[in-house]
Amino acid sequence: MEEYKGTILKGIGGFYYVNTTAGVFECKAAGKFRKDKLIPLVGDTVFIETYDNETGGYAAIKSIKKRKNQLIRPPIANIDKLLIVLSVCDPAPNTIIIDKLIAMAISNNIEPVLIISKIDLSSAEKILDIYKLSGIKSILFSRVDGSGEDLEEIKSVLKGNISAFTGNSGVGKSTILNCLDKTLGLQTGDISKKLGRGRHTTRHVELFLLPFGGYVADTPGFSSIDIGKFNIIKKSELAYCFKEFRSFINFCKFTSCSHTGEVGCAVVEAVNKGEINLYRYKSYISIYNEIKSNKEWEKS
Q1: Staple partner for 122: which of 54, 57, 88, 117, CB 3.0–4.6 Å?
Q2: What is the pLDDT of residues 167-198, one digit of tens each?
Q3: Contact criterion met (CB below 8 Å) for 219 and 206
Q4: How far, in Å, CA of 106 to CA of 50, rounded?
C-alpha cells in the first residue's frame, strides 16, 4: 500500500482522477463519504491509498482536507483566484455584474482579479478609473500573440493557484487561455475542440495543470460561474465585500447603517468626496436592494 496527497482534477461516473507527485490516479471514494453525505469535488486536496491486486491495482480517496471554499455550480472547491475578463468594447462592460462577481468572490475567500481586454480597440481609462480605489488588481491585455508584460502578469497570478475564468462571451477568455497554454487549442467564440465537446453535450468541471504551475478550471465554456450559486451574502456583510468601503464603515453615525443613504453615513460622505467611486457605490445599492428583495440570497 502507498499513500499520496493530491488534487482532484475531475470526477466522472463515480471515479475521481487525482493528480499527485507520482502521477494521476483513478480513484473511488471510500464508503464513509457516502455515509457522511460528503461528495468529493474537483479542486479538493485529498489523501489517497493505492493497493496492488490481481486486476492490476486499486486506488481510493481516504480523506479530504478542509475546504477553503466551495461553489455549487460549477461544483468545485478551493478556488484561489477568480479572473473576471471584461472588454472595453464589443461587448461593453456591465459594472453591476462585475461588482456582483467581485463581492461574491470576496465573500467566499476568493481573490478577484480583473483582466481588461481589447485595449487596442478603445481606451481602458474609464474602467481603470472605476476600480483604481477598489483594491482589486487590474491587468490590461491586448496582444493576441501572447507577448508582453501583461501576459506575464496573468501568469504570476495563476502560478501555484487554483483559478477560474469568468466573463461574457466575446470578451477574449479563449484568446487569453490560448496564449497561456497553446496546447489547449480553444476556439475563440466556441468551446474546446481538444475536449471533444459539442454545445449540447454533458459538461464536467475539470482542472488543467498549467505549464508554468497552477491549475485552471474548465467550467462549461470557461465562463459559467453561476453568481447565484456562491455562498449567499447577508445584507450586513455586503459592504465588507466592497474593499474600499472598509476604512469608512466604522465611522458611520449609526452602527446599524446600511450605507444606502442614512444621515451620518461615512460611506456616502466618502462617495461625495470622491474617495469611493460613484459607479461602485451604485453597484452596491443595486446588489443590496436585490438581497433585500430576495430572501433566498440570505444565509439562514
Answers
A1: 88
A2: 887 887 878 888 888 776 655 544 343 433 33
A3: no
A4: 37
pTM (2 decimals)? 0.86
Bridge partner list, 8:
18
What is the residue-wise DSSP string for 4-60? EEEEEEEEETTEEEEEETTEEEEEEEPHHHHHTT----BT-EEEEEEE--TTS-EEE
> Could you report the per-residue pLDDT of 221-258, keeping only the tens digit for each?
455 666 666 667 889 999 999 999 999 999 999 999 99
Give me the residue label for grid cell 436592494: 289
The answer to whether the beta carbons of residues 256 and 121 sit under 8 Å apart is no
Cis peptide before 93 (omega within 30 of 0): no
- Give the three-class secondary structure for 76: strand
Task: Walk me through the domains of the chain, giving residue ranges and CATH numbers.
Answer: 2-66 (2.40.50.140), 76-222 (3.40.50.300), 235-297 (1.10.40.50)
Q: Are 18 and 24 in contact (CB under 8 A)?
A: yes
